[in-house]
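Hey,
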Amino acid sequence: MPHIAASSARVIRHLFAPVYAPFADQLGLPRRLNPPEPATVPVNPQSLAPGHAVALTFDDGPHPQGTPAMLEVLARHGASATFFVIGEQVVQRPQLLQRMLAEGHAVALHGYHHRLHLRCRPAELEDDFTRGIAAIEDAIGQRPLFHRPPFGIYSPASLRIARERGLQPLLWAAWGKDWRKFTTPRRITARIMRKLTPGDVILLHDADFYSAKGSHERTAVALELLLAELKSDGFGTFLRGS
C-alpha cells in the first residue's frame, strides 16, 4: 500500500483482518488453531484421523433462549464449544455461564458492550475490558483467556489493551453469517462446510441482541445440521478458551 499513510494502512489492516487472512497474519490474529490429537477430542475420537477437528465458537450471548438451545444441541451431539460472551448480558444471566462450564464448554470475552472498537476512545476500551473480565470472573470465578472483539475488528488501541490484559485474540476461519435476516439453516451450514479444514475456528451466534431478531432460532437448526455433517466427514470439535 505505497500510497496510503502508515496510520491509515494500520487501520485498514484491523478493519479487514476478520475476512482477509494476510491482514490477520500481519497483526498476529489467529483464525485457525492446531487441533489436539484424537484422544483428547470429545466427539467420537476413535473415528477421527489425528488432529481432524475444528473449534466451534459462539458470539454475543448469553441469551435466555438462544444459549440454552445451543447447549441442548451440543449435548445431543457430544460436542464442545467456546462461548465469547458480552458482559452486559452476563450480569443479567450468570447462571448460563455456570451451565456452560458444567456441561464442558469454555467461556471467553467478547466485550462488556457490543461496540465497534474503531469508534471508541482508549479510555472507553480500557473500561470495557475491565468490566467484561470482571463480569465473567463474578459469574464463574475464572478469568477468560481468549478474546474476540465485536464484529471481529480490533483498533490499534484495543489490540494493545487485550494483550496487556493477558488475553489471546482469536478470530475465525469459517462462518455461517447466521446473523442475517434473510438466510436459512441450510445456507448457514453450507457456507461453513464449503472449505472447512482441520483446525478451523467456526463462528456462530447464540443471541440476537445485536443482529436480526430471531436469528438464534435459525442458528440452532443450523447447528444440528452442521454437527451431523461434521460427524459424517470425520470431524470432531475441541475447546479453546479455558
